[in-house]
């Protein structure tokens, strides 16, 4: 797989562990994304540089991050992470856990707008 080229040993194992331990909002968003956009391939906890993207659509160059309570006081860290991911050619969209759990239809609509803005065939 192209994303793993040149990655340190343990990258695959770490990604697997992150998928196993994923919080419910990430799991729910992944399920609804796959249902709403079945022609796109959605990857969960995919490595990008030193980071792991919560949800990635490689063909659309889109990363979706689901932020829980631990991100409340980490804006600077999240901005740096987003800047790195953007420098790799990806667009980054962030959603709070509460948005995913309470307004998944709105989140999917927002993702659809982002995909159409890029000119996707979705």
Lay out the secondary structure.
Blueprint: H1 11-20, H2 24-36, E1 43-48, E2 51-57, E3 62-67, H3 75-87, E4 91-96, H4 97-102, H5 104-118
Parallel strand pairs: 3-4
Antiparallel strand pairs: 1-2, 2-3
Region (Disordered): 1-20
Protein name: Endonuclease domain-containing protein
Organism: Sphingomonas floccifaciens
Flag low-confidence runs: none
Separate helix tally: 5
Helical percent range? 40-55%
Largest sheet descriptor:
4 strands, mixed
CATH fold-level topology: Endonuclease, Chain A
Please give the domain count: 1
Count of β-strands: 4
Strand order of the largest sheet: 1-2-3-4
**CATH architecture assignment:** 3-Layer(aba) Sandwich
Order of helices and strands: HHEEEHEHH
CATH C-level class is Alpha Beta
Given the C-alpha coordinates, what overall shape results?
Answer: globular
Give me the CATH superfamily: VSR Endonuclease
Structural class: alpha+beta
Which strand-content bin applies to the residues? 15-25%
The N- to C-terminal Cα distance equals 25 Å
Description:
The protein has 122 residues and is an alpha+beta fold. It has one domain: 3-Layer(aba) Sandwich (Endonuclease, Chain A), CATH 3.40.960. 47% of the residues lie in helices and 20% in strands. It contains five helices and four strands; from the N terminus they run H-H-E-E-E-H-E-H-H. Strands 1-2-3-4 form a four-stranded mixed sheet, sandwiched between helices. The longest helix is centred in the last third of the chain and has 15 residues. The protein is globular. The two termini are 25 Å apart.
């Amino acid at each position: 797989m192209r994303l793993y080229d040149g990655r340190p040993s343990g990258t695959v194992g770490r990604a697997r562990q992150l998928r196993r331990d994923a919080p419910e909002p990430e799991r729910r968003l992944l399920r609804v994304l796959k249902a709403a956009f079945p022609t796109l391939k959605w990857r969960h906890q995919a490595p990008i540089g030193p980071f792991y993207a919560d949800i990635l659509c490689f063909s659309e160059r889109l990363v979706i991050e689901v932020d829980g309570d631990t991100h409340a006081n980490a804006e600077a860290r999240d901005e740096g992470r987003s800047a790195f991911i953007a420098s790799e050619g990806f667009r980054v969209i962030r959603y709070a856990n509460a948005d995913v759990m309470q307004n998944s239809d709105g989140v999917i609509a927002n993702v659809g707008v982002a995909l159409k803005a890029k000119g996707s065939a979705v």
